[in-house]
Design brief:
This protein is of the alpha+beta class and 151 residues long. The chain has three helices and seven strands. It has one domain: 2-Layer Sandwich (Alpha-Beta Plaits), CATH 3.30.70.
Length: 151
């Protein structure tokens, strides 16, 4: 069993909006923490936090320029919070890079996980499908799914 099959302890949610002319790829590069980033099948691996930490960046179906970053951190919550606090001085350059491509919208949110439910049932045969590339066609398909407000 890998840590990805376990329940995370802390969940964080940050929402940002791409600046005009910037792409998701620009955001992804700016968002990578310090350290050697190794391209993986669905993103990047970076040895940055001691506690296993996944970060999922999702593009809004309503507005593809909006990106939600969801952090899943595993391990003792007190130790995780202490490590995050120790990384704050290292984060300024990264935050500056992100600010060049996207504006923060909404508050930064952090939560302690209270339950972990599998509403898709247990399927050991399931394997991760390739991620969709965020192309103009995908953006159009997402926009078609979301009812448009009448003005």
């Amino acid at each position: 069993m890998t840590y990805r099959e376990c329940t995370p302890q802390i969940l964080s949610v940050l929402t940002r909006k791409l600046k005009p002319g910037k792409t998701f790829e620009d955001f992804q590069r700016a968002h990578l923490p310090p350290g050697k980033a190794v391209k993986a099948e669905f993103g990047y691996n970076v040895d940055y936090f001691k506690a296993p930490t996944r970060v999922i960046n999702a593009v809004s179906a309503a507005d593809p320029s909006v990106i939600v970053s969801i952090g899943l951190t595993y391990g003792n919550p007190e130790e995780v919070l202490q490590e995050i606090a120790s990384k704050i001085p290292l984060e300024k350059e990264r935050h500056d890079r992100i600010a060049e491509v996207a504006d923060k919208i909404g508050p930064s949110l952090a939560y302690f996980v209270a339950s972990d439910n599998n509403y898709g049932g247990v399927n050991p045969a399931y394997t991760q499908l390739p991620l969709s590339e965020v192309t103009p066609e995908v953006v159009a398909a997402l926009e078609a799914l979301v009812p448009q407000k009448k003005t």
